[in-house]
Structure formats: structure tokens, C-alpha cells
């Protein structure tokens, strides 16, 4: 053998080495044996010619030398090996690397790990592509942490959504509360004006109602009966309106219904139906049974220039019902 050459084991392969290259290859040997990242080299047939210790351990192999001369088909399912082979042949054909791709890797023992992987063309001294080499880093812990963070964010968003709902709900009646009523009224009126400016025919109506002689009910039967009356109204409004309608308790014994795509004539029919159901349905407690009535005012968006005007119109009609003897719908 030429004195300028001798065979030495460098890394986990055997190459004829010039003495002048020894220090450089010792550096490679150190990297291959101590790097926590996996490093490997393959020939043009995607056969392993060099492997780092970390790479071999990923295969469940103690000695990297066991990988030499083998390929992914010897360790992995065909679809996984096919994908790896396709990547490597593409790199050999084009000279274009694959850099920092997140890959799901099912190890030979069945465990799943996530890798941040890069693959590159391998050149000889003449600049010819003679294979590929790659490196990857196990990011399973980071991936799991990210997934946990996504789950926590999802849970937090759901919790916030529930809090928003709870903050908008009146606990006694089960209906939306005062604040939510005026927020939704403002949104609906803004939508109405925008669509009207576009020449589109869109209608909204509002029903306001309150319990007749509610103070007398509280004074005569007690606040417990008054609370039962509030719940009673909430249940009847919910059962007798559409899923697209929204029902609110915006005051002590004051309620509202927002009805999209509903003319004032249609809304008045809804109001009359609710008035009749309430008039004919009793409220029972251990001590007594009570029938109540309500007065209602109905208005439509086309009658108002703004939300305040809209609310005032409905409120005037409600009190018109009160002054005309109660238990009445005015529109």
C-alpha cells in the first residue's frame, strides 16, 4: 500500500485515508460519535455508508456499523421507505436540498417521534453528486408542548366563550341581559342601515313587554312569587319564539324580543300569541296559584332614525298598552 494512504476506521465507516486528511477526519469522527443530532450519509442507491451514533440509536441499534450497507426498507414500512427514497432520488436528480422539514417518524419499535430534518446532495472532489447526506433533530418534546399549548388555547377560548355567554345571561330569567340587549340592538340597527344603503329590503322588529301590576304581585305574594313570574316569562318567551329571534330581560320586569326578517305586522302576531299564552298559563307555588298578564309594544326599524329612537318608539307603544287597560298589544 502507498505510504501516503492507509485504511483507517473513521466515524462508522472504512475509507482509504491520506495522512494529511487524518486531522480533518478525526474532527468528523468526534462529531459523528458525540452529536445529539442524527447524521447519516447514503450512496446513490440510498444505502447507508456512514452513520452517527445518535442516528443508529434511533433505529434501536447500538453500533452504527450495523447500518452500513443497509437501507430504510430493512427497518421501516414500505410507504415510509418509499417516501425517503423518493426524497433522496429527487435531491440526486436536482441537486436541491430539503431543509428544516418537520417529519413524523415511526421508529422500528413503534414509537412516534417528530424530527426537524434536512437532506442535502453529497458531492465528491470532482463536484459530482455521489449520494445524499442528512441530519435531523428530535423535536418531539417541542411538538408535544406545542400541541398541549394549542389544546390549552382551545380550552381557554372555550372558557372565555362560556364566560362571555354567562356575562350576557340574566341568571333569573335565563334570557340575555340588559347590556347584551342594547349591544345586539345596535348591531342589528347598523346591519339594517348598511343593507338599506345598498338598496336591499331587510326588516327587523322589536317587542317590548312588562308584567302588569308587578309591584302588587311582589307586595301581595312576596318576592319569591315575583321571581317565579320572571322565570315563567323567560320560559314562555323561549318556547314561543324562533331560533333566529333573541329574547332579553333588560329590566326588573321588563323584557324584549329582537326579531330579524320580521315586519311589524308579523311581530304583532308574535306579540299577541305570547300575550295569550301568558294570560292562560298559571304560576304555581306551594302557597298559591297565580295568573298574570303582560302589556306589549311593537315597533319596526323603518320607523326609527337610530337605536334610541327605536327603543323610545317601542317603549311609547308599551305604555300605550298600559294606559289602555293593560294586557294588550300596541303596534
Task: Give a structural overview.
- It is built from 9 helices and 14 strands.
- With 331 residues, the chain is of the alpha+beta class.
- The chain folds into 2 domains: 5-141, PAS domain (Beta-Lactamase); 168-330, Alpha-Beta Plaits (2-Layer Sandwich), CATH 3.30.70.
- A 5-stranded antiparallel beta sheet has the order 4-3-7-6-5, with helices on both faces.
- A hairpin with a 5-residue loop joins β5 and β6.
- α6 (214-221) packs across α7 (223-239).
Helix content: 40-55%
CATH 4th-level superfamily of the largest domain: Reverse transcriptase/Diguanylate cyclase domain
Tell me the fraction of residues in β-strands, as a range.
Answer: 25-35%
Unreliable runs: 1-17
Number of domains: 2
Spell the H/E element sequence: EEHEEHHEEEHHEHHEEHEEEHE
Q: How do the strands line up in the largest sheet?
A: 4-3-7-6-5
Overall form: elongated
Protein name: PAS domain S-box-containing protein/diguanylate cyclase (GGDEF) domain-containing protein
Domain GGDEF: 202-331
Organism: Natronincola peptidivorans
Coiled coil: 139-169
Structural key phrases:
331 residues, alpha+beta, 2 domains, five-stranded antiparallel sheet, five-stranded mixed sheet, 9 helices, 14 strands, 26% strand, elongated
Amino acid at each position: 500500500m502507498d505510504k501516503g494512504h492507509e485504511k483507517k476506521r473513521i466515524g462508522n465507516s472504512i475509507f482509504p485515508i491520506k495522512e494529511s486528511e487524518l486531522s480533518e477526519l478525526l474532527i468528523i469522527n468526534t462529531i459523528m460519535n458525540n452529536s445529539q443530532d442524527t447524521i447519516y450519509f447514503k450512496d446513490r442507491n440510498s444505502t447507508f455508508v456512514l452513520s452517527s451514533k445518535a442516528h443508529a440509536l434511533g433505529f434501536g441499534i447500538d453500533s452504527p456499523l450495523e447500518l452500513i450497507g443497509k437501507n430504510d426498507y430493512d427497518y421501516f414500512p414500505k410507504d415510509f421507505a418509499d417516501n425517503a427514497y423518493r426524497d433522496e432520488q429527487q435531491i440526486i436528480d436536482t441537486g436541491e436540498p430539503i431543509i428544516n422539514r418537520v417529519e413524523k417518524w415511526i421508529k422500528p419499535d413503534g414509537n412516534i417521534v417528530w424530527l426537524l430534518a434536512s437532506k442535502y446532495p453529497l458531492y465528491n472532489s470532482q463536484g459530482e453528486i455521489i449520494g445524499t447526506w442528512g441530519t435531523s433533530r428530535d423535536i418531539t418534546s417541542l411538538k408535544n408542548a406545542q400541541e398541549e399549548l394549542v389544546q390549552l388555547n382551545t380550552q381557554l377560548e372555550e372558557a372565555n366563550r362560556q364566560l362571555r355567554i354567562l356575562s350576557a345571561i340574566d341568571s333569573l330569567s335565563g334570557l340575555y341581559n340588559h347590556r347584551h340587549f342594547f349591544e345586539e340592538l345596535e348591531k342589528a340597527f347598523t346591519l339594517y342601515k348598511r343593507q338599506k344603503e345598498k338598496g336591499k329590503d331587510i326588516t327587523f322588529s322589536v317587542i317590548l313587554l312588562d308584567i302588569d301590576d308587578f309591584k302588587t304581585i311582589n307586595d301581595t305574594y312576596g318576592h319569591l312569587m315575583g321571581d317565579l313570574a320572571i322565570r315563567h316569562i323567560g320560559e314562555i318567551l323561549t318556547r314561543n319564539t324562533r331560533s333566529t329571534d333573541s329574547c332579553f330581560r333588560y329590566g326588573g320586569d321588563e323584557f324584549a324580543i329582537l326579531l330579524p326578517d320580521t315586519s311589524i305586522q308579523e311581530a304583532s302576531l308574535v306579540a299577541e300569541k305570547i300575550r295569550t299564552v301568558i294570560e292562560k298559563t298559571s304560576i304555581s307555588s306551594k302557597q298559591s296559584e297565580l295568573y298574570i298578564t303582560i302589556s306589549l309594544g311593537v315597533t319596526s326599524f323603518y320607523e326609527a332614525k337610530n337605536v334610541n329612537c327605536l327603543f323610545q318608539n317601542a317603549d311609547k307603544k308599551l305604555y300605550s298598552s298600559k294606559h289602555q287597560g293593560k294586557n294588550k298589544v300596541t303596534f
